[in-house]
Fold this protein.
Amino acid sequence: RPSDVAQRFSHTAPAPARPSFGIAFDIDGVILRGRSPIGGAPRAIRRLYSEEGTLKIPFLFLTNGGGVPEHKRALELSQLLGVNISPTQVVHGHSPYRELVKRFEDDLIVAVGKGEPAVVMSTYGFRKVLSIDEYASYYKDIDPLAPFKTWKVGQTDSHMSAKVHPSYDVYSERVKGVFVVSDPIDWGRDLQVLCDILSTHGLPGTEKGDQPPLYFAADDLEYQAAFCSERLGMGAFRIALESIFNEINDHPLKYTSFGKPNPFVFKNAANILEKLVMSMYPNSQTPMEGKDYQFSTIYMVGDNPKVDINGAMKAGHPWSSVLTRTGVFRGKDNDPQFPADVVVDTVEDAINYILKKEC
Ligand code: G3P
Ligand code: MG
């Protein structure tokens, strides 16, 4: 019987060699447009698994998007793509925020953006988090345009219920940090409330003071969503906030942006892929013994030259870039400013190219 054979020979059979390459996939404009898979993504991603559904090739998703905890996104992607994706295979723009928990131990912080920004921050371990929806709701008249808004605000974050009394003393406790987690929804209200918080040392309606720290999960000017042309991203919101803040204050806005193309994002992704491949092949020999990296190549498959390709270029060895034509980039040849190592039509073509080269 096959199982007996496997048992008898298991101590002598050589362990399968670890792949010497890994892959990082951008999501928006490569795997999905809006919520729909594109470019043959489900079929192509399935090639990275065995017939039995076990992961064969180490890969992860490296997106500047987000708005939900990584475990939730992993579940969504598993359903959309028909494979089993683990939370460690999902790196959002905001994933590095978890490293800042210690700095804001018992401080009140405000989380901004679509989805569940406050839930994301609580999942990372931040203890006193309010979404901007909830925070703004405690300040009557803070948004003079609210009475004209026909939509119901604040229904997306499960931290936002119909609370009348704030969980924290928002009228005397200063906001010590602002985290833009995902693309803001109500730009007008958010620009107003953030200018209030950031100009007044964290207490709207009081005198001007030091600016609390401000973080952006990414700085994408534009990205590919479901609409046929690019949409304004978090970087566009940052420009709007910065321009207004600088006009109404006598000192410039200070902020930190995370996400691609920062090289530390790629370094972190490489570390995750290395841990992943070791857990997939615990007994096999390291093919690149003695080298800094176990991988000879990590492919970044992206649609945005300025973000994905530029980032892989800046990160250097062992990163190599593959540009698809399903998102921000639609050129015939290569991008003139940030040329990729390879240009293909779709993510399926990218996977075909990589597997042909490596296997
Ligand atoms: O909001 C998402 C966007 O800025 C980029 O996502 O997956 O293309 O990095 P992605
Ligand atoms: Mg993209």
